[in-house]
Amino acid sequence: METKQHDIPIPIIDLAPQDLGEVAPHVHRAFKEFGFAYFKNHGVPETLISEAFQWSAKFFALPQEIKEKTPRPLERWKPRGYSGIGLEKTSQDIFQTDKAANKEFIPDCKESYEMGSELNTRIVNIWPDEQDIAGFRDFFTHFYSVCYEAEVKLLKVFALSLGLEESHLVQFHSPRRNQLRILHYPPVQTALLRQGKAERTGAHTDFGTITMLFQDHVGGLEMEETGQPGKFVPVPYVPGTVVVNAGDLLMRWTNDEYKSALHRVGIAGVNKGQGADEMTERRYSIPYFVTPDDGVLVDCLPSCHGPDRPKRYEPVDSSTYISMRLEAIYR
């Protein structure tokens, strides 16, 4: 049920057993130590994942003027639509002066398109015209629903890993509030990345409950090594798995029992050029962000605090927290 590859620090957890209670101890160990794990037999078919990457590449290959027909809303808390290269800065510092923000603003060298549940009437999807990319909407509506089914299975095993009823976390997570994102990282000069003049995705934590990440063979994902601040280690592509990491709200729910680890996209898939000619390889990834429903009060879970273990966090409204973090990303 749990394995490790010699060059990968985090475990690979098998969700195949029908009794999720057998898996729960492995989940507890992984997320207490790393905040990350690979999961196999997660429920999203490999053929469907491959098709999702094909649709992603097809979308980002559209002419720029077509992609810009689905712009991300001006309201920063609405994660929908298309964002072009340089419009986003992944930020971990949500409270900082304008001077500091300007000094640290190195845009991410990526473009993205974001969507969510068709049931969400507060934050509606901004789909491309059917004539521009026929079948895109139908495919990703289906893909989103399959990801939600996998999410439910994961939330059940997370609850069991914390000594709770398996339905405890599921009750706070309908399909309405989650976010599906397709990302394209075009080639960029490695010299700019090494000199700090450009970034792919800067170091950050995710701010929801958990994130399911599908990445291509290029890799590039890195996480901060446990107990060694500032040192990042690769989280490479492993066929047949999805990478799952804990977000800030799960860390708050568990009273820091589970880590919300810093992670970033570094330099990977470099070509054989030299100097200014050395470029990164084109990269695609598809994260599915699992977020509590609007209005959920995130407070320490009953199994994660007590007389000898006081609460480290005040209760927080999930919607308010998510909106605050989204405001920090787009400037």
Automatic annotation (TrEMBL):
Record PROSITE patterns: FE2OG_OXY (PS51471)
Keywords on record: Iron, Metal-binding, Oxidoreductase
Domain Fe2OG dioxygenase, residue spans: 176-292
BP terms from Gene Ontology: small molecule biosynthetic process
Gene Ontology MF terms: metal ion binding; oxidoreductase activity
InterPro entries from the UniProt entry: DIOX_N, IPNS-like_FE2OG_OXY, IPNS-like_sf, Iron_ascorbate_oxido_reductase, Oxoglu/Fe-dep_dioxygenase_dom
PANTHER family, A to Z: 2-OXOGLUTARATE (2OG) AND FE(II)-DEPENDENT OXYGENASE SUPERFAMILY PROTEIN-RELATED
Protein family: Belongs to the iron/ascorbate-dependent oxidoreductase family.
Name of protein: Fe2OG dioxygenase domain-containing protein
Record organism: Ophiocordyceps australis
